[in-house]
Amino acid sequence: MSEKILVLGSNGQIGTELVTALRKAYTNDDVVACDIRRPDYEIKNAGPFEFVNVLDKEILKEIFLKYKPTQVYLLAALLSATGEQNPKLAWDLNMNGLLNVLDLALAFKTAKVYWPSSIAAFGPNSPKDQTPQFCTMDPNTVYGISKLAGERWCEYYYQKYNLDVRSIRYPGLISWKAAPGGGTTDYAIHIFHDALKKGSYASFLSAETELPMMYMEDAIRGTIELMDAPADQIQIRSSYNFAGVSFTPDVLAAEIRKHIPQFKLTYSEHDPRQAIADSWPRSIDDSQARTDWNWKPGFDLAKMTEDMLSNLKK
């Protein structure tokens, strides 16, 4: 049976690269990009595109009716720092968008649903180092609260209705292709742009703030590998811990200096994103993902830095 895949929120940092990867893995016509905003030229012209607001259940239903998807990737969300500026909207989009998709996936017998969670689902009382798959989770941002609630809904729909929902808790994602999307870990993208343009960067996070990160190429590959894995291998139906590499702004700057020796890093004070970062893990234990569906990252800090700089130079 041929696949028909919907990617909702296809214009975002993950969506743009995921649509491209899925169209390579399947065919261009099999992958329908959907977003509330006009996409870039490549996404719109390489395959089908639909304007969709995930909060508009009637329009969403029409899209399900038109394409009868076998897989749905729901990426539409308001991220951590942006969400704090508009908490009610963040909750509405992140929560009701998910519930709309879960309900329609059931109604249209969609085989598989993918929804991303985040390290933001952890909180101040979660263990900070090698944060385990199961532990205290007390998020204190609306983004994190919505992600934790979303995880519970995903598991509920699996247990109650046997809907094949799959999820990953993404760390900070680093990419040279798409612009940052308003997240707390976005300094790790801006720093590369400014290193090349200005030779300096003012970090909004402190020198000792260590956070889990991942290169986008790994994140996209891992996401598709999770969705391709046989259903009986998927033991976690809330969301899988997922890890790449952890570092501080200082450590990243030192790696950049191997390529741009004169690069200078300074620190700006009193940024609200610091408090968000302080509540998140420093490193993640993703042994369950490695065991269940053979997850393994391909990029370490050195390889990622080299790839980012060489692509951004072009």
Question: In terms of topology, how is this protein built?
Answer:
Blueprint: E1 5-8, H1 13-25, E2 31-35, H2 41-46, E3 49-51, H3 57-67, E4 71-74, H4 80-85, H5 87-107, E5 112-114, E6 117-118, H6 142-161, E7 164-166, E8 168-170, E9 172-174, H7 187-197, E10 200-203, E11 211-215, H8 216-228, E12 240-241, E13 245-247, H9 249-257, E14 264-267, H10 272-278, H11 287-293, H12 301-313
Parallel strand pairs: 1-2, 1-4, 2-3, 4-5, 5-7, 6-8, 8-12, 9-11, 10-14
Antiparallel strand pairs: 11-13
Features:
alpha/beta; single chain; six-stranded parallel beta sheet; 44% helix; 2 domains; globular; Rossmann fold; 314 residues; UDP-galactose 4-epimerase, domain 1
> How many structurally independent domains?
2
Output the radius of gyration. Answer: 19 Å
* End-to-end Cα distance: 40 Å
* Strand tally: 14
Largest sheet: 6 strands, parallel
Structural class: alpha/beta
Low-confidence stretches: none
Helix content: 40-55%
Fold-level CATH name of the largest domain = Rossmann fold
Overall pLDDT score: 95
Shape category: globular
CATH superfamily of the largest domain: NAD(P)-binding Rossmann-like Domain
Q: Architecture of the largest domain, according to CATH?
A: 3-Layer(aba) Sandwich
Oligomer: single chain
Instruction: Please report the number of helical segments.
Output: 12
Instruction: Name the helix and strand elements from N-terminus to C-terminus, one letter apiece.
Output: EHEHEHEHHEEHEEEHEEHEEHEHHH
CATH class of the largest domain: Alpha Beta
**Beta-strand content bin:** 15-25%
Order of the strands making up the biggest sheet: 3-2-1-4-5-7
